[in-house]
Amino acid sequence: MTYSPANTIWVLLGAALVFFMQAGFAMCEAGFTRAKNTGNILMKNLMDFCIGTPLYWLFGFGIMFGTGTALFGWIDPFIMGDYSAVLPAGVPLWAYAIFQTVFCATSATIVSGAMAERTRFSAYCIYSAAISLFIYPVSGHWIWGGGWLAQLGFHDFAGSTAVHMVGGVCALIGAKILGPRVGKYGKDGKPRAILGHNLSIAALGVFILWFCWFGFNGASTVGMDSDDLIVSAGLVFFNTNLAAALATLVTMIYTWVRYGKPDVSMTFNAALAGLVGITAGCDAVDPFGAAVIGIVCGLAMSLAIGFFDKVAKIDDPVGAISVHGVCGALGTLLTGFFATGVSTEKGVLYGGGFHFLGVQALGVVSVIAWTGVGITLVFLLIKKTIGLRADAADEALGLDRSEHGLTTAYAGFAILPDGSLMEETAPVPAPVALTATAPKAAKEKAPDAPVFTRVQVICRPGSLESLKAAMNRIGITGMTVTNVMGYGAQKGKPEYYRGTPVETTLLPKVQVDIVVSKIPVREVIDTARAVLHTGHIGDGKIFVQDVENVVRVRTGEEGYDALQGE
Length: 566
Fold this sequence. Notes:
The chain is α+β, with helices and mostly antiparallel strands and about 575 residues long. The chain contains 17 helices and 8 strands.
């Protein structure tokens, strides 16, 4: 066989980009979940690749690409057989093997997001192995290994069904068997929003995935040594980008109209939904078809997240079922409508009739059936043996600590009760000995002794600077500022996260403590109120309390002297 440098480099570059998608998935899943589970998320995204790689080498590649039967390849440990019949032109076996290995890992990693925050790590390792070992390779053989679907003319260019829908179906069944996270649904059955802890990391993940998708789809041409392949790669790149952009726009507009504000996390999901949807037909449709596929997938993903969350009561923290399962199936079916006939049969809208659409539908249904049955058996076996779900106490504590002995994935930050982060302030060590004068002995107050009063102000974080400036103007020489969480009688303004109302029982506030003696308390109160008042709910509260005594630690001064500057 004569090898093509251009084709080989193109395939290897694509393999490297698809591998880097693991980082994108890790960032997305970590950002959309709570801080107390970040280490667990990162560990799972690393291990599904490391577990899947040797298993795909041992058995998966042979099952998928062996020329055995229309249903199954062959058992070929260590890829020792002859695969010349299925190798792309000019591409050596090991280049193609690594290209297919990273695709297998992508399918396995999709599942972790939907089952995040409550799955045993040992159980995850087992079902991830099962996906790479036989679930993904068998249906992959049908589609890409010369199996019965390929013989019928089923078209899934880069894996809307073969990769993403397989992962999405596994995610759906796993999340259903596993059950929702503790606290996800109230006694009335209504979902509660559990916010992701870091949208910056989630956004980074989306951009990594979008970038790597050019390798996922583009390198699936598996060649660049002819004019036809070069033209096809350019179309694939353009369609991939267009579908993702329009899906994102549609979701932004939909959530803006539906909830009054554009939802950030769902808009991030929409970019991935468009990418998943166009993956099946990015070589077979024109830009008009790609645009429609993106629009449909963006809207379908938005509706599907609401359906699974509110109607089906299936808890999917990252939206993997809707993004990969729903949009993977949709993109494959829509190829049957919009295929122009360049690399496949013509679609329905281009005069090709319904035959090609029927083949696409048959492929989607058959892969769902195989994947559903196979992964259900795996999950039930795990549940009956080692257990699938983490204990409720471990889930409340966070899987970082219970599964990995990791106090936190964010050194220098404290994990709040809701699983979010708050920056810690390191305590200052007390001095061994004081060089200043020793503290004065406590004594009873004289009748004319000065009175000390603590004025405690609870206000919005955004009002802090104005309050500090106003206090400085009236002569306040010191204050203590603390970031706190709380709520008043109104419990804040209702907001939405991924279409679910956010329970605003705890809102970010700032607590400012000021102890005064010389400055009239009334002046402090009136000044603070004048600065903080807007007339809207959430302006805050002012509490006034008597203080018994004040002691300056450094010098030992007490009372009035301790409150004065140098």
